[in-house]
Amino acid sequence: MSQNKPVTIKEIARRLKISTSTVSRALNDHPSIGWATTTRVKRMAEELNYIPNQTAIFFKQRKTFTIGVVLPNLSEPFFSSAISEIEDYANEKKYTVIMGQSLDDPARETRIVEKMKEHRVDGMLMSLSKNTRDFGFIESLRTAGIPIVFFDCVPDAPDAHRVRCNLETGMLQAIDLFISCGHSHIALINGPALLPASIERREAYKKGLTRHGLPYVDEYLVDTDLTQHGNHEAISKLINLPRRPSAIICFNDFVTLDVMKHVRQRGIALNQDLFFISFANYPLWQYMENPPMASIEQFPGKQAQKATEILFSLIEGADEGPKIHDVVFESSMIPQG
Length: 337
Description:
By secondary structure, the chain is of the alpha/beta class. The protein folds into three domains: 44 residues, no CATH class; 117 residues, Rossmann fold, CATH 3.40.50.2300; 132 residues, Response regulator (Rossmann fold), CATH 3.40.50.2300. 43% of the residues lie in helices and 17% in strands. It contains twelve helices and twelve strands. The protein starts with 8 loop residues before the first helix and ends with a strand.
């Protein structure tokens, strides 16, 4: 037969003088086919370089054995940890993972979701862009029969499956640590004001101050859009205040890296004149001089693993739990200095 024409089960059946249904069952180790026949079929398939027609298999099973994952930035260590857990779990289920990064662009995020829907992924995992405000794609995926589970940056929607971290726990621990070290002028460099994670940090920050009888000072709470320029503007506002804070909690470790560099350039001594604690527990802090006093672990790996577990329970129809999943991990402060 032609070298360019792919081998089919019909060719295997013709050569072995058996039915195509027998060949199909043997290739899939069906118990109704004896060991000797199965061995003959697989040997012939190997000799002929038979490659299963995945499109036909997917059509028959109504699955593509792929899941889509959409994250803000695949290069961030936080999401690298998450990706490893997702791929390990999916591999055990013999699924392929298709990745997409939104780069915090809602329009790009929507296009990626639509493309994954067009390619009929069996389910999706997602951590939202910091600028996402329209969640219409959730209903669109639901209508298409594609389950989606959010983790880390999740929508404030009662009908969404979510795995997230309680940021209040770590924030309160950070304020407790600063106060135990004698700090009473504690500031917060927060993320975009409307981001759910920023709102959670802001409320926890105020709660922590109140617990210790400290007043909330408007000037000590500044927002950043998480760009380098925005981070520099935020720290400049704080260090130029008449009463400069002595301790600062930052939205995440990348904000902290930016502001610490800016502080050094201004001649302010880290961990002497100004102290930091940040969120996310950047793994390279341990190799740096003058790291922040502590970093708040948000367990990206655990979040991703649990979200993937929930997604596959939805894909496989084995979910006997509540209709909507809302799983919360407690953040925890990890000393660095």
